[in-house]
Here is the input.
Amino acid sequence: MKKVYAAPDLLSVGHVRNLLGQGGIESELRNYYLGSGAGDLPVNECWPEVWVDDVDADRAEQVIRNLQAALSTDAGPAWTCPRCGEINEGQFGECWHCGLSRSD
Ligand SMILES: [Zn+2]
Here is the structure.
């Protein structure tokens, strides 16, 4: 098995698993219950992870690259919050740090 993806939110992880499933790639969700351990462990080791069989890993990584490329084109460039100066990914309409709406 090989880890092909990890994200802090289950939504992204679920989306990736759906896409893999549509491509006929079986995946396994790991770390689902580890979230409550955050604080004791480095935070990115608590993220939900998507694992696939070694034979599917190349294809799975290609699916994920395509997804990330599509997301970054749709969302536009990253933007800098005028209130707190945080840099936010293009898909976010609000600053993740202070909650300021992008259109303000
Ligand atoms: Zn902000």
